[in-house]
Amino acid sequence: MNIAAEPIYQLTIPTPFPVGPVHVYLICGELVTLFDSGPLTKKGMHELERQLASIGYKLDDIDQIILSHHHPDHIGLTNKFKRAKTIGHEKLRPWLEKNELFFQQYTDYLKSFYVKNGVPPELMKKIESASHSYLNYTERRSLDIIVKEGDNVPGLPGWIVHEVPGHAQNHIMIMREEDRLALGADVLLASVSSNALLEAPMEGEERPKTLLQYRDSLRKVRDLEISVLMPGHGEMIKDVDSLVEQRLLKHTKRAEAILEILSFRKMNANQIAYELFQEKHRMQPDLTISETIGHLDLLLEYNQVKTKEIDEYTLYFIE
């Protein structure tokens, strides 16, 4: 395949979220393919249409949209492409289709989990408010084609799907094997660490240990020998190996900080999160609790901490 005949355009779309603008990518292959779509805002829609027009395309020219994961800055504008087929992981379906029963079960599980981990009512309200707000930046859309690890990307010969859970359970990336160029969305970002966000389990599954998954995904990305990783935010990444090692080391250091905190007494996850993040925990408890639980999962995996249920709360301690 002639790579020069398959141009890739980076389109940078504003978002209302702290992460800043999101990159979506137009691949001009056998099928005109958009990788992610941006958030559902008037400004986002305007920019997407404007940038597509600047390279000679309009919404109806897009044959298919590959969705990396369910976060609203990546899927929000998908329903504006009425002619395009949607492609994603099977665990994306309930998010994209806005399955109300799934959302209720998901919310109920996390609410119970937060309570067990000591999250007080005022922080619970902030977490619930943030979750509801995010859903306003997406529209319901069906998922047409499900892909999994190792699949060839429809309409893009030479591109392979890789599952990279952790930041989201349904996160995928795609790589062009000929030159090892990858579109990675949020699996690895140059200037900030991707959060391994806490998620409820799918029906019949155990709670996913998202940081453990994410660390496995980082090692997988490293081992793919990627030449250039085009991310969902920030600068393109050429030295993937070095950045992966930095991220893994950062996880280790944060886990060590938790061990230091627990050297004094038994604590629940909310108490640990406050010790780690101070005021940020009051402002963004959904993120800080995810970070804390993830690193506690890591310490439990290596038998460096223990848990005990006391009065329906989970306490962590060092023996």
TrEMBL record:
This is Lactamase B. Residues 21-233 form the Metallo-beta-lactamase domain. It comes from the Bacteria. InterPro entries: Metallo-B-lactamas (IPR001279), RibonucZ/Hydroxyglut_hydro (IPR036866), Sec-metab_biosynth-thioest (IPR050662). It comes from Halalkalibacter wakoensis JCM 9140.
